[in-house]
Design brief:
Blueprint (H helix, E strand, L loop, with lengths): L21 E4 L4 E4 L2 E2 H7 L2 H10 L5 H12 L6 H9 L6 H15 L9 H26 L13 H10 L10 H13 L7 H10 L5 H12 L7 H14 L4 H9 L20 H17 L4 H14 L2 H5 L6 H11 L7 H22 L26
Antiparallel strand pairs: 1-2, 2-3
The structure holds s-citryldethia Coenzyme A (SDX).
S-citryldethia Coenzyme A binds next to helix 16.
């Protein structure tokens, strides 16, 4: 006989696994990677150290860190056949579609599932994707502007090289901006993992069939794309632009967000777990002020964002539902200040989340978790005989 099956839409009250990677406390607004607070990591670590910490469980020693970076650099060449695929995309192709397709193409080059019993095999797959994914991101950006695809410079830091691969111009001297490097490094750290969110759960369940790491990541990229999830950072900027075009009428958008007949939601607000301020939003809001001030950028969109936040924090509907700004509310403002186009924001989210997806996939496989296969409660037609076509 069937055991008791409980339906839990969106798995709001369902735990899918035990994990030692990331700890969230939604009531207190706490986020820790392997026990270290996000506030300390964002201030004191760099993105590659945090990637190592998430994946292997400890902050790397200097020697481990150097080896990790060198092994990643050794993998930062992408097969030229993949580059030809980039050229096949129209410039108007959505960057998330391009980067998901290119990651799937890499899967064709790495079809087999990793032998998880071999730490060496697993390590090789990990440094391979960490080396190649930033190239795919940079190529996606350059395709959009018809720029030659650049391989960057392995003498640079990991994040420095990403910015160079994206923004260097042919026959022009590229001047690295420490402000942008530090801002992107911090943003990527803040996005690096977030326990069992939608896209991470997608990576884990895809990997539970023993699909390869690259195939599981490509599935995660597609799940992240949705505007209710990682796609929210793009949707926030589009919303703020619409408000700006509407004479900054934030009250109209607040009313729309509360109107049950209107599907519009205030993008960048609310969270399944955080019922208090998203700790990442606090850090990003402060960083947005600093980056724009350092870049000497006056962005009216930032003022509209702050006005909207103030209104929402004082609005009873939002207070009753514990709707606070989340990680996506301010991140787009920094990306925009860095010259990254709106439809590339979720690609930058994927770049940050990559180490978290890898860490979670590795943990699921090392824990030998069974294939994810939930049950259902059937509510369809009862048994009935076939009706021939001429009798229908
Ligand atoms: C990310 O899970 C993660 O950790 C994700 C993430 C990560 O790092 O991986 O943190 C990244 O995805 C952040 C969230 C980005 N998404 C958005 O900003 C889109 C707007 N936010 C909402 O769609 C919503 O808040 C979610 C999707 C984030 C959470 O949805 P839930 O937990 O399913 O909550 P719900 O839809 O059941 O809403 C509860 C109530 C409802 O009202 P009532 O039916 O109770 O009257 O709150 C309302 C909702 O209508 N509500 C909103 C709202 N969010 C929820 N109303 C207006 N605007 C909003 N943004």
């Amino acid at each position: 006989s069937e055991g008791v099956i409980t339906i839990d839409p969106g798995y709001k009250n369902t735990g899918s696994c035990e994990s030692a990677i990331t700890f969230l406390d939604g009531e207190k607004g706490i986020l820790r990677y392997r026990g270290y607070s996000i506030e300390e990591l964002a201030e004191k670590a760099d993105f590659l150290e945090v990637a190592y910490l998430l994946i292997f469980g400890e902050l790397p020693t200097k020697e481990q860190n150097d080896k990790f970076h060198n092994d990643i650099k050794a993998q930062s060449i992408v097969d030229d056949d993949v580059r030809k695929i980039v050229d096949a995309f129209p410039k108007t192709a959505h960057p998330m579609g391009v980067v998901a397709s290119l990651t799937s193409a890499l899967t064709a080059f790495n079809p087999s599932s990793v032998n998880v019993n071999s730490e060496e095999d697993m390590y090789k797959a990990i440094v391979k994707i960490l080396g190649k994914f930033p190239v795919l991101v940079a190529w996606t950006y350059r395709r959009k502007f018809g720029l030659p695809l650049d391989y960057g410079d392995n003498s640079l830091g990991y994040v420095e090289n990403i910015l160079k691969m994206m923004f260097s111009q042919p026959n022009a001297c590229y001047v690295q901006s420490k402000i942008l490097v530090d801002a992107l490094d911090k943003l990527l750290i803040l996005h690096a993992d977030h326990e069992q969110n939608c896209s991470t759960s997608t990576v884990r369940i895809t990997g539970s069939s023993h699909a390869g790491l690259f195939a599981s990541l490509s599935a995660g990229i597609s799940a992240l794309w949705g505007p209710l999830h990682g796609g929210a950072n793009q949707a926030v900027l589009e919303m703020l632009e619409a408000i700006k075009a509407d004479d900054g009428d934030t009250k109209k958008y607040m009313a729309k967000a509360k109107d049950k007949d209107d599907p519009f939601r205030l993008m960048g607000f609310g969270h399944r777990v955080y019922k208090n301020f998203d700790p990442r939003a606090k850090i990003i809001k402060k960083a947005a002020d600093e980056v724009l001030a350092n870049l000497g950028v006056e962005d009216p969109i930032l003022d509209i964002a702050k006005g909207l936040e103030k209104e929402a924090l004082e609005d009873q509907y939002f207070v009753d539902r514990k709707l606070y700004p989340n990680v996506d509310f301010y991140s787009g403002i920094i990306y925009r200040g860095m010259g990254i186009p709106t439809d590339m924001f979720t690609v930058m989210f994927a770049l940050g989340r990559l180490p978290g997806w890898i860490a979670q996939w590795r943990e699921m496989r090392l824990n030998k978790e069974p294939i994810g296969r939930p049950r259902q409660i059937y509510v369809g037609a009862t048994h009935r005989p076939f009706v021939p076509l001429d009798k229908r």
